[in-house]
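Exam prep: given the inputs below (a chain plus iron/sulfur cluster), describe the expected output before reading on.
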Amino acid sequence: MTAPRKLHIKSYGCQMNVYDAQRMVDTLAPEGFVETSSVADADLVILNTCHIREKASEKVYSELGRLRVAKDAAALTGRQMNIVVAGCVAQAEGNEIIRRAPVVDVVVGPQSYHHLPQLLAQAKAGGRALETEFPIEDKFGFLPPPKPAAIRARGISSFVTVQEGCDKFCTFCVVPYTRGSEVSRPVAKIIDDVKRLADNGVREITLIGQNVNGYHGEGPDGRPWPLGTLLTRLAEIPGIVRLRYSTSHPRDVEETLIEAHRDVPALMPFVHLPVQSGSDRILGLMNRKHTAKDYFDVIERFRDARQDIAFTSDFIVGFPGENEEDFAATLALVTQIGYAGAYSFKYSPRPGTPAADLQETVSAAVMDERLVRLQELIDSQQSAFNAAAIGNTVDVLFERAARNPGQIVGRTPYLQPAHVMASEDIIGQVLPVTLTSLERYSLLGTLATPPIQPLQPVPSHSVTGA
Ligand code: SAM
Ligand code: SF4
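Solution:
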């Protein structure tokens, strides 16, 4: 038997990349690779990159500088270390990486991970490999499913990709170019994946896609199923107690999704719905194809269906041409909606996107100042949202032992971490917790009812009749 080869994988960016990293690990497991947390020990290092903002892609080149040192050190001990650049920077800058970074053996775009074993064989044979095509075959049909032990090691919550790519072409965004056009996986394949996960202890599924509510995969009836219908079906799978999805576009919120929030208790009342700006003029320049009023209307439809629903969002400040009035409209929108949290970013021009050609740029100083003002407002809303939970009894899905001895940590429906003193038996259960205090972003509480004990076998002689 040959010793296992060690794989170190580092992911940047979105949930999709976290999920893709797991699928790369699953693809390389049959090749004898096991994961290691140490770069120095690794025979193979994969950087799973993000291209969404300039800072994200710059990180790749500085990381490659560090990896050159590690690769040279391995070579001195007679060991070959291969370096792979995967993800969206690989897709967007493949040839440039090969030219600029001789340390890299393989560059592979997100649609070609199922070809990793062949690309590595090519690199082992002394060549360098680049694959950034959008192959005709669907990679999901070729990626091996995770092994039961790998599923169990990853815990009780799992992502499942149901949709990839985006056809929206927001003028600031690289995703349509790096991930390609929208593709939805068939319902039957997703059901198989979720059943396999549930059979191995997963209790919570987050369906992911760049434009997840644009999902329209083929259903068992041969017709395209919308996201709401898919979620309703997945909720029937034994063992699945919580469902989530991310990231949604306000224009693709159709009625089955609203109905699912009304009718499916496992679907959590917590929705990430990016809006980017509160100014109709800027939304137009961004090609979002909706107004602030359209967005409010969508929020109202969700709230009418489920009153306890809460929202998070994404915002970009300093989009070219954004003036004080536009920015004030963003602050007004945030104030009016009242978010449970949100991400806000400074606009970063991305080569090849239409907005990169816009001339009327906003100065770095103004962007910084607007980002601070927006984040202060969002932070105050988030703190108020978390503080409002104190005194309530809420369902918590318990995930793992916490750092403090004796404490178990789980998540509320709004993904707030909640800690209780309890035994590890409660991991994987949803239990009501009375929340008593808040420490930064973590809630502390006590179990409101005793956990369900595993059933004791009943001795045959003690069976009693009514
Ligand atoms: N599909 C989602 C949507 O419709 O908003 C999000 C996709 S993107 C991976 C995540 C977030 O990154 C976006 O919502 C946007 O706020 C931010 N983003 C994308 N391109 C950006 C850019 N060029 N500069 C700054 N932020 C950007
Ligand atoms: Fe990018 Fe999202 Fe717009 Fe698609 S909808 S182009 S992923 S920001």
